[in-house]
Amino acid sequence: MEKNSLIKRITGSREASLLLVLLGLCIIIQILSPSFLTAKSLQDMVKNNAVIMIMALGMLCVLLIGGIDISITSTLAVSGMAVGMLLKYNVVHNTFLLFLIAILIGAVCGAAIGLVISGGKVLPIIATMGFMYIYRGFAYLIAKSQWASAENLGDFKNLPWKKNLVLDF
User: Fold this and answer.
1) By residue range, what is the domain housing residue 108?
2) Are residues 24 and 99 in the same domain?
């Protein structure tokens, strides 16, 4: 009887069912491609998805308190574009300072949305949807209709931190 109740609890839990599906998919992919769950493969996945994982942690915090933020990619776009342009036009060369600037821009963007939601009593979905377009517009204005890719960053080959940079597109 206990075995049935354990199976019933596992299959009745949405999270446990999703975990079982994920494990099943990982096993199938590992059988089809033996290099899937190697240390190198897992390390590459973490490196290439670090930004997404950081955004997911922030989104997790928002979701845990019952909110939603659909402007997160636009916030990333405006902070990334600002830092990219600072680097492109040789305004700032210090990597640590660039990270601080990006974090500060993201914090200001998040605080603006938070003030509108809490002070203006606007629903989070409405506020973040509006700010999503505002921040995309800011990114466009900051860029002056230019693209700030790695190839356009000026003397990119001589930057001191370039040795540790992984650019997998």
Assistant:
1) 42-164
2) no
Please report which helix (H) or strand (E) contains residue 42, including its range: helix 39-48
In a domain, 169, yes or no: no
**Together in a domain, 57 and 107:** yes
Q: Which residues contact 103 (CB under 8 A, 6 or more apart)?
A: 79
- Dihedral of CA atoms 75, 65, 68, 84 in degrees, nearest 10, equals 10
* 17 part of a folded domain: yes
- In 3D space, the residue among 94, 77, 90 whose CA is nearest the CA of residue 143 turns out to be 77
Q: What pLDDT tens digit does each residue of the chain (169 aa) get? A: 566 677 777 667 788 888 889 999 999 999 999 999 899 999 999 999 988 898 899 889 888 988 889 999 999 999 999 999 998 888 998 999 999 999 999 999 999 999 999 999 999 999 999 999 999 999 999 988 876 555 555 555 555 555 555 544 4
CA distance 99 to 50: 14
Same structural domain, 22 and 55? no
The structure's pTM equals 0.67
Specify the 3-state DSSP secondary structure of 106: helix
Q: Give the C-alpha separation, 13 to 157, whole Å.
A: 52
